[in-house]
Design a protein that fits this description.
mainly beta, 1 helix, about 50% strand, five-stranded antiparallel sheet, Tachylectin-2, Chain A
Amino acid sequence: MSLLGAFRERRPFPGQDPWVVVHEGSMLLVQSAGNSRRIVVKRFRDLDRMDRNVETVIWPPRGRSAQGQRLWAPELHHIEGRWYLYYSASDGRSASHRTFALVADDPLGPYRALGRLFDPSNDVWAIDLTVFSHDGRLYALWSGWEGPDDGFPQNLYVSPMANPWTISGERRCLSRPQHGWEMTVAPVNEGPEVVSDPASGRLFVLYAADASWTQAYKMGLLEWTGGDVADPGSWHKLPRPWFTGGGHGCVVTSAAGTHLVYHRKLSGDPGWADREIRSAPLGWDAEGYPVLRSPQGTEPSCAAVSGGSSHGLAPPGAHVGLEPLTA
């Protein structure tokens, strides 16, 4: 690498489970912080300058409540003029992890607690909840266990919502780890996000697979084939990983274009301490599938699978995204 390239190389930005939104000319990254005991928003100008941020603590739970420890994967959604923050938390015991919602009129708060989001028929371990709207109806999508003490596998579940803080129908399992690449270390499906091609309207779920505490973490893709989005039969899982070398991302569109923001693990040592947040330009191929591109926007680094044929999809074992992405 040249001396100039070394100076331009982006420094690692520590973080995990990134969720970024655009608000009033700034980008807002919501994160758990302080040993996962509080939620913060980091405000910055663009993805190349995440390290130049202003941090605001927006939720500091107090006491040893059911929502006071292990605050994970917060997401910020603007729904009907208000800001809703979804996160999972526990009382310190893994099996007690559940999902909670907050609401505010401004993304920086102050926030008010709305309580727990859950399916009363299946009140079990639940993390990484996201929400999406389809045909005028709101849905929740999250990662959870089948039973109260399962541990593994982690599956993806979907349910309709009566409002942004209430699940109104029994959950249905949208995806289970089924391919070898989803469970080389542990059978995990988590961190879902719904994305759609603005031109064709094709709908997808990006999700993280395998063990987040290893470099095996990667991303898969579910494709909506039509019908009820809460019906597992309306979705098709693509048989190979969509992205390797990182996971649990979000897609954000700003004046600089559309990007996937995700985290990757820096070392081969198991654990969560050495994760960094990265980004890569995201586009759509001629068939309406999401494609990651190089920073220069010329060559796709990975793509979807259509009709059983590969359109540049990362082959099993590849580590697309491990190379530095520089501006």
